[in-house]
Write a structure and sequence with these properties.
Blueprint: E1 2-6, H1 10-19, E2 25-29, H2 41-55, E3 62-71, E4 78-79, H3 82-88, H4 91-99, E5 105-115, E6 120-131, E7 146-148, E8 151-152, H5 158-164, H6 166-181
The structure holds inosine 5'-triphosphate.
GO biological process, one term: nucleoside triphosphate catabolic process
GO molecular function: nucleoside triphosphate diphosphatase activity
GO cellular component, one term: cytoplasm
Length: 182
């Protein structure tokens, strides 16, 4: 059994392999699928998985992941545009924007899109927390400004983060489903 994880990030493929250990092997493949402009991570992931399966040579199922940070007081911004906002505005300036708000609650959401020859499925994982002034050296992306249970994700070890993370939860849900269906 083999699932192809479409990502530019080696760490994400390794994390997927850890969750799917004993269920299926995971190969990382690079493919620049079209990221449609949509407010829905599920729609982006569904289209990405279907396009990757159809365009890549091979018959093994594919998985793609799409993640966003949704800030309550900003109407869910940056949401599906999180990568763009990280590259343009940056994490520090997003913190400054949120610091003006009384309500600093936010959530990470990851949607995994799965496609094989028969079907397309999505699996979601969320992590709720609070936006804070940057702390910590670990992790990546928005981790230094996202606090969960008194620690930012950048202050946690990789194991601590994976045990509670949005991506981990989505992968665990996918692993259960895949084990039942194969
Ligand atoms: P892929 O190659 O896997 O698509 P990506 O970085 O383009 O990688 P993602 O959908 O995973 O796409 O991430 C969207 C944005 O959210 C991007 O700015 C990331 O840095 C950020 N992000 C994703 N997961 C995160 C996490 O666990 N902690 C902090 N920031 C995260």
């Amino acid at each position: 059994m083999l699932v192809r994880f479409v990502t530019g990030n080696e760490g994400k493929a390794r994390e997927a392999q850890a969750y799917l250990d004993g269920i299926t092997a995971v190969n990382r493949v690079e493919y620049d699928y079209t990221e449609i402009q949509s407010d829905s991570l599920a729609e982006i992931a569904t289209r990405g998985a279907r396009e990757s399966f159809e365009e890549l040579p091979g018959t093994e199922p594919v998985l793609v992941g799409d993640t966003g940070l949704f800030v309550d007081a900003l109407g869910g911004f940056p949401g599906p545009y999180s990568a763009y906002v990280e590259d343009t505005v940056g994490v520090e300036r997003l913190w400054r924007l949120v610091s003006e708000e009384e309500n600093r609650r936010a959530r990470f959401r990851t949607v995994l899109g799965y496609a094989d020859g028969d079907r397309t499925e999505t699996f979601t994982g969320e992590l709720a927390g609070t936006i804070v002034s940057p702390r910590g050296e670990g992790g990546f992306g928005y981790d230094p400004i996202f606090e969960y249970n008194g620690q930012t994700l950048a202050e946690m070890s990789l194991e601590e983060k994976n045990a509670i993370s949005h991506r981990g939860r989505a992968l665990a849900t996918f692993a259960d489903w895949y084990a039942d269906h194969h």
